Amino acid sequence: MAYYRKTNSGSFEFFVYMGKDANGRKIKESKTFERKKDGEKWARDKEIEKETGILMEFANLTFKQFIEKWLDEFVEPNLSPVTYDKYSRVFLRQILPILGKFRLKELQAAHIQAYLTKIKHQGGSLDKQKYFYRLLSSALSYADEMNYIHQNPMNNVRKPGKYTKHKIKEKKEKAKAMSRELLRDWFTFVEDDDPWVADYSFIAINTGMCLEEMLGSRWEDISFNDMLIKVEEAKVYVRGKGTITKGPKTEYRYRKIPMSEELADRYRSIWKKQQKDRKDLPDEYQDNNLVLAKVDGSCYSPRRVQAKIRKCREKGGFPDWITSHMFRHTFASLFLAENKNIKALQKILGHSSYVITADTYSHFLEEDFVKAGQDISRAVGSIFSVQD
Length: 388
Fold this sequence. Notes:
By secondary structure, the protein is mainly alpha-helical. The protein has helices spanning about 35-50, 55-60, 65-80, 80-100, 110-120, 125-145, 180-195, 195-205, 210-215, 260-280, 300-315, 325-340, 340-350, 355-360, 375-380, and strands at about 1-5, 10-20, 25-35, 220-225, 230, 235-240, 240-245, 255-260. α13 packs across α14 (about 355-360).
């Protein structure tokens, strides 16, 4: 039950009984307002909190304000910086312009269902609809767990594709890899146009490391004695923080990769170039011990590398599917062309499951690749020598 009194200053002090504590004493909350209607609204919210357990302080947030809270409280501490950046961009650019204006307590299943239907009518793929459904489900499940809402509206939202009568399972697009001929053309072009991209491409097709892992690779991770490369750090971009250093995103990504003689020679060449850069820029050079650094020793952001590769691709007239990650696929194709052990490939790539590796790359086993030797070193190193 709520009541109020008017103070000597003309404001209104409202009181609400919220039940009893563990010792049986009554719990009373109070708050002072300049306007009576503000106090009445606060008292109503408190009564709802008492009856339902819902924290109306948070239920009154706009959906946009709640998502910002969810990103800070749940996503950032529990998921990778790359995932945090991806989630925040999707919500900021695509979801919140439509749903962000609703208060959390007002958001209904009908609003979300209409939004997902709109995506479909605008040509959004089923995968896109399902992805947005999963993001909204994750965020609103957190709101439900924290008692910010009385009922999760996602409980009544139809999952995209679930109710199609004659549902045809869409085939997952197969990972693409560069042929040996295309690789030779690529290196012929980038060695002159952008030597840094040439170094990146060579290391990528020899190791299978992803972009973030390669940017985080340090000279101390390269062992010429053991002919091994350790993967222990990654450079990731986080919105509002820029490019930061993190460990690999899963425990399986901490690994060692065998190094071929050709790759060792490439590393030595990069080292020599860096020593020259250090002499040419004695006051400006940043000694960050990075293998793939800028001329001044600083680190490229992942987005900048993607832009450099895109520029080379467009300038040289190469297919638009050539991306930073495609070189990882090319490594897999070259490995499987010589060594058909998917389990070994899983370990080198740092996949958490054999199923992931097999599902992504097993089709390469059926492709006609030119034999190049007996191991990964010869398979990759022969790119420039084998005649098709």
